[in-house]
Design brief:
0% of the residues lie in helices and 43% in strands. It is an all-beta fold and 195 residues long.
């Protein structure tokens, strides 16, 4: 018996973890025991093998051959910050590892994921500005189809930023970058480059 194949998009609910196992292109969210699609493609159900003790079918999402890399929890991405709010920053993911993405993936850096220490004192506006290029790791596929990203490691954070004057800024410390044109120092959560 073949399940009719339907198109799904990232973040779409595929079923309950009690009834399905997450295969390739799908993942189980532990907090609500729900299986979601991790990429755009066709939903496909594979029956369990007769001798398997786990008799749940496996749901997979078979992506288009043309699609590029897909962000997955644990991988490092390069993203461009689009909006900074009091408790989080939004970003568009541009690269997964060293490969550029072909689809639009959105990411969110929450206040608690900016750095590893003094989490409650993080000021988002002193960490990122729109247009910054950020290196971050993927925590999970969060809500509203945006990946949760973290910069809470020394080598993660802003890797490239433009100053108010339009110059490409140079990192001067963990928390500051300097404009070469004006000498102005701006606050950022800076990534430690090449250690």
């Amino acid at each position: 018996m073949k399940e009719e194949e339907e198109m799904v998009t990232p973040g779409e609910v595929l079923g309950k973890g009690t009834e399905l196992k997450a295969g390739k292109g799908a993942y189980l969210s532990p907090h609500n025991n729900t299986v979601y699609a991790a990429l755009t493609g066709r939903r496909s159900l594979a029956p369990p093998s007769p001798e398997s003790p786990d008799q749940r079918p496996t749901v997979e999402v078979i992506g288009h051959k043309a699609h590029g890399p897909v962000p997955e929890p644990g991988c490092v991405v390069i993203a461009r910050v689009t909006k900074v709010m009091a408790r989080m920053a939004s970003a568009d993911i541009m690269c997964v590892g060293s490969k550029s993405v072909r689809e639009k993936f959105s990411g969110v850096i929450r206040q608690q994921d900016v750095r590893a220490t003094e989490i409650d004192k993080v000021d988002m506006h002193s960490s990122f500005r729109p247009g910054d290029i950020v290196k971050a790791s993927v925590i999970s596929l969060g809500d509203a189809r945006a990946y949760y990203l973290s910069t809470a490691q020394n080598e993660l954070g802003v890797v490239s930023a433009e100053s108010m004057a339009g110059g490409t800024m140079v990192p001067v410390s963990w928390t500051e970058m300097q404009c070469p044109l004006t000498g102005q120092i701006e606050q950022r959560k800076v990534a430690k480059v090449g250690a």
